[in-house]
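Batch job 17 of 40 flagged for manual review because the log was empty.
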Amino acid sequence: MHTMFRALFSICLAICCGISLTAIAGDLASDVRKGASGPDSGNGGYLEVGGGLMTYTSPFYGTPEGNKKDEVHTELFVDISARYQYNGWFVEVFSQSPEEFTLGYNFYNGSNWSVDLVGLSAHEEMDEDTSKDFRGLNRRRFDFLVGPRGTAYLGNYIVQVHALKDIWSTHEGELYSFKLARHWQVRNLNFHAIVGATYRTQKVMDYYYSIEADEATEKFPEYTAPGGMSYIFEVGATYPLSESWVFRGFIRSVQLDTDFVDSPLILDDHGEMIATAISYVF
């Protein structure tokens, strides 16, 4: 499976080479909501800040604290969409993206595709300070992954791939992802859809979802996780309420394969989210 995703990454970059568009890439989830065909081609940036409401189910034990299978949670959140670039260096923040915060450098733009070197955290801290549910379990630290990100804008489609490796010696594992997005403009209303797949190598899965012998209990029996796949499906809409205010909403589903679900730290093979937000454009 590891070899397959290396091949997939190479194939996707090759596809990007065949498209006659020039673009400097950005976060896919943000770009597709804007109906982008090649944003942020120079220095500068933008900032949008607002508030939103989300209702969701989580398949992860302890996230949020006291979480149970199929339990519905409703929370307010701060909605931020921001990007700033200077001489190729950039920072991206988008609260509605699976990759909420990304640092990077755009090091190549061909006539039809773009590649960035990016760094991001893909997994949050898991210990009793973040959730009392983790009491008695070994601490799992958050990671920081670095690697290439390739993006192509194909008319109304956006393709984005990541090939990332942990550089903080958290788990020394790798993550490979592929996402395909499309947007439809209906007057001032922009609809979008995203499908994607992510593969985590055995080192990543083992660090976060295995149960070691020294922490095993009747509730958390000893378990060794293999590498595993997850999938994302999303549909949503963006509507400018005025020159200064924008509305966003989406429905997202995350599916986990059996390599996740077998872990005592996973409650279910899926999670769903519905979110809406209104933000001010600076």
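Reviewer: the log was empty due to a logging misconfiguration, but the result itself is present. The first strand starts at residue 44 and ends at 56. Unflagging and moving on to job 18.
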